[in-house]
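pinned: reference chain
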Amino acid sequence: MKNLKALTVVAVVLLVVGLVSCNKDKTNQDLTKSVVGTYEGTLTTNNLKTTSPAIADISKVNDYTIEIHCYGDDIDTTFMLELYEDGDMMRVCFTDNDFYNEYGHHESENHHMMGNDNGWTTWQQHMSNEHNQNDKHYGYFDMNDHKFNYIFKIDSSSSVYTQEFSGVLK
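pinned: its structure tokens
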């Protein structure tokens, strides 16, 4: 009788553990963990062909959004971007109103929750579902070399030009 009770208790415990582990929601990977930090590099202005030192401080907003503070002699700006995995790259795209201002439409509801193995939308899914063929993107992280590149569009009163940041994680 004692053995039957013990066997019943063990069976119930195994059943509960099995049910809990099977019903566990897939947790999304923190995409920001491999890109946050300080990137030291240069800022190159296309219309002047000049280069100056610059820094980009990357901090986490949530598991797929970062805030970038890029500063140096020729720039001091802060903005947010969303992250999308793309092989050895972590691609970036605008958020909220910045997305609308650049592309002329809002992102779809739950645009970052379409799900890959990590639970997030991949770059290919993002491009297919949120963008037109000719939409331009301005930056990326090279995960192998720990580099961050980003092109800023500068709209001055007399002209539009670009400044490109290129930096390495320190």
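why pinned: Residues 152 and 163 are 5 Å apart (CA to CA). Confidence is low (pLDDT under 50) at residues 9-26.
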